[in-house]
Design goal:
286 residues; mainly alpha; 68% helix; globular
């Protein structure tokens, strides 16, 4: 009896998305985009659910502005310029700074609770992870900025005379740069206590010597430190915006201001990505 050959089955040479869509690997770009959007959404959900946080978003900066404005107004005599008006752009810069500090502290908390380790093994690049966090912090800062902005009329600014394009661009670039820098520092810090200590000796002093609270000297060591302080240019950008596009009391011209701010945002973001790629994390340690 003749032996029959074994049956042959034609196998597809490739798996298409129509045959087995779940088996088709997702492009890396889609994974990075999804990761960044997920982290952005997570920060916004945290803000929406924490109702008590909204009170601090508005009242804290306004209370600080009212107290410092009335107190320091008797100390600094600015020709033809009210101190409350002088300090208000510094208040807006402080909004971006404090939002960046407190929001990036969640990087340490997420690491200690294991969430960050799960993010790192998910599809997507480290740059997408940093971008998602920066966008989340920026979104929260913009919400706070828009809530506080109408109070500028109490400082003597006119809503009709503000150059909103310059103002918003300066706020975005400054916040992106500061958030990226804070992210890199949070990634390296082993504990939240170390992070707070570092913020107290680095970022907050940079805000103080940016010209936010008092006029900068035209010579001396403080003048040279402020010249290399990126927050000085962020504050100048806000002053230009509030004054209609160009401010007489800003220390730099609008062109110089935005060139420096753009460089600051790009370099700080690149630093955050580099630190996230180069420094391996473990739970409870940087």
């Amino acid at each position: 009896m003749p032996t029959l050959p074994p049956p042959t089955v034609a196998l597809p040479t490739e798996i298409t998305s129509d045959v087995a869509p779940d088996l088709a690997p997702a492009p890396a770009s889609n994974g990075s985009t999804a990761l960044a959007l997920t982290l952005l959404r997570r920060d916004l959900l945290r803000l929406r659910r924490d109702t008590g946080r909204w009170v601090g978003l508005v009242l804290q900066p306004l209370l600080l502005w009212a107290l410092l404005g009335s107190g320091f107004g008797e100390v600094f005599n600015l020709p033809n310029f009210d101190y409350s008006r002088f300090f208000f752009p510094g208040l807006v810069a402080m909004i971006g700074l404090f939002t960046a500090i407190f929001a990036t502290m969640a990087v340490i908390e997420d690491r200690d609770h294991g969430f960050l380790q799960q993010v790192l093994v998910a599809p997507g690049s480290r740059a997408a992870m940093v971008l998602g966090k920066v966008l989340g912090v920026l979104s929260i800062a913009i919400v706070q900025f828009l809530l506080v902005l109408p109070a500028c009329t109490l400082a003597g600014y006119s809503l009709a005379e503000i150059n909103y394009g310059v103002l918003i661009l300066a706020f975005i670039l400054g916040t992106v740069g500061t958030t990226s820098l804070a992210f890199a520092l949070a990634w390296l810090c082993p504990t939240t206590h170390a992070y707070h200590a570092l913020m107290g000796v680095l970022l907050i002093p940079l805000w103080l010597i940016s010209g936010a609270m008092f006029p900068l000297p035209t010579d001396g060591w403080l003048h040279y430190v402020s010249a290399v302080n990126p927050m000085t240019y962020g504050l100048d950008g806000l002053r230009h915006g509030f004054e209609g596009g160009s401010s007489a009391i800003a220390s730099t011209s609008p062109l110089t201001t935005f060139l420096a701010l753009t460089a600051y945002a790009i370099l700080a973001f690149a630093l955050a990505v580099y630190v996230a790629r180069a420094k391996r994390i473990t739970r409870g340690a940087a």
